[in-house]
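Table S5 (text form). Sequence records supplied for joint modeling of the two-component complex.
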Amino acid sequence: MSNIYDDDTFFKAYSNMSRSKGGLTAAGEWHQLQRLFPNLKNKRVLDLGCGYGWHCKYAIETGADSVLGIDGSSKMIETAKRINQDGQIEYRVCNIEEYDYPNNQFDLVISNLVLHYIANLKEVYQNVYKTLKTGGLFLFNIEHPCFTAGINEDWIYDSNGKALYWAIDNYFYSGERKTNFLDKEVIKQHHTLTQILNSLLQCGFEIKAIEEAMPPENMRELPEMENEMRRPMMLLIKAQKTAGV
Amino acid sequence: MSNIYDDDTFFKAYSNMSRSKGGLTAAGEWHQLQRLFPNLKNKRVLDLGCGYGWHCKYAIETGADSVLGIDGSSKMIETAKRINQDGQIEYRVCNIEEYDYPNNQFDLVISNLVLHYIANLKEVYQNVYKTLKTGGLFLFNIEHPCFTAGINEDWIYDSNGKALYWAIDNYFYSGERKTNFLDKEVIKQHHTLTQILNSLLQCGFEIKAIEEAMPPENMRELPEMENEMRRPMMLLIKAQKTAGV
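The corresponding structure-token record, covering 490 residues in total, follows.
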């Protein structure tokens, strides 16, 4: 298994991002994602692609009984164990596609900015549906289809380096997109909005919230937020398993 | 009341579009929209922005008891009365914002390619919710937010007139967009995906289907379909009033 996050140079660059160092509050979308969390008192939580474990730790701090965080990168899991350790959190090196999802086990499944690396989104949805208890919630944040359909996932610039506009193309040809992230070529998976949302419905979920991440007013002045009102980058979705498997 | 569709030149150009002349089957999205229709046997239908009345006629032909089609353009209503007349269809010149929505009256409300002219989408949602019976459906087709956020709702062209890509900007600044449609300046309203979908949930609807219109394979070779796989243009949504007002 090769994981870009296990590449030393890449992982170091990732570690230097403000959202890595600063945790949840350094992420522009956190104020929206946080509001979508249910009451976690006595709940069991699964985090798909837990990264540094910020969301696992948050779940425990807000009352969850236990959390399982899985991530395909051993470097991520090492860091999570170091900086977000807790007796009620289990961290495990495991890919989202390879995890053996137990039936009716979790009250909440979360996944933050990972599903755009997954080719077969519907298979993940089916597994999450299976592993949730009836009434359980699936809360995730995925790159917006406008963003993944963006040419090179980047702006078109003028000759002075100014971002002119966000250009999309080949929208309905979903699948692999080569992008540049932290100076490395990173392969992402573009899914159309139909694939992201309608597949949830087809798998039996009821959609409870659909929000595009929009920087809060007090963060819009930050240099890295300069263009964030110009195109949508992330899609936050809350879905519920309302009936049994 | 001024309505662009009551402008003689514009209306003539509109009348010459293949989707105007050919009716439902000439519209690239019809194969998808049609599948989203419920069984209409003995049902009451309201069509918001009925245009030529193609959908009204279809509803009657597939079993509906009665249809009310409203449209702000008197030219549209005149044409509908001429080409899609039926004893069970009432056509009325009336704006979507001005119609006096009766409580719990309709089993289905449809709206095809009209809501992107409406500034206050949520008010329409609230009215539709009110006017639907419990269990009733709201089926609509609205221009996709990627499309309405497109600069001039047009491609960026190279010097040879070839469409390079679809450029979006100012996505989160929703509201008025000046576009060119059939050689006239037409004002449309850009709504973000959050505004289109999350507002439905906030108004009490349950979302049953979300599909982006994609030309069927047998239409992709048509000259006007050349670029239709490159960016999404329309969003088809089916929502249900699952509980009472």
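Note: Helices of chain B lie at 8-15, 18-22, 30-36, 54-61, 74-83, 121-131, 145-148, 193-202.
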